[in-house]
Amino acid sequence: WRVSCERYMPMLRLASLCGVTILPMWNVWDRLMAPGLGDTLLLIRLCTSAGFALLFLITYHRLATRYAGFITSLTIIVCTSSLSLILFLMPGGFNFGLVCALIPFLWIPLVPSLVSALWSVLISDAVILALMVMDKLSPTMLINGAFMLSTVSLIAMAMNYIIIQTRKASFLFETNMEQA
Prior knowledge:
This protein has 180 residues and is an all-alpha fold. 81% of the residues lie in helices and 0% in strands.
């Protein structure tokens, strides 16, 4: 397990660097879609980017491999929440941008444990759905959003399970080869 997490850390560092650099660049889109909210949305994006920078630094701590699943889950939840908050603040944001809130779900298959991945999905889904309800979307849009969320969540969890099983098999194979 520890070997798997040690191998996972460079990927987590790369993801955090992507968050630090890419997230603020989306403010161009914010300013096109909601010109009056550009500064507010930039502040949200910069705060989230600061979180990613902190994550990058934390991954170099000696205990980071022990808590890799928790660190990754927290990152996904924070990113999903901030993107959902941005969509909530934009007029009609969830109508045209729900897919943006699902971007962090791309990382769920890479979470090192199934339990961490499940918590990431459940909490992120709850945040997105709560903000969609608060945004007073039509019942059709809510049903559509819930369907998209459940579909993406199930696919991400299935992929997470497959990747974890593949990692375990690879680890066992490497261990057996070392002992031979």
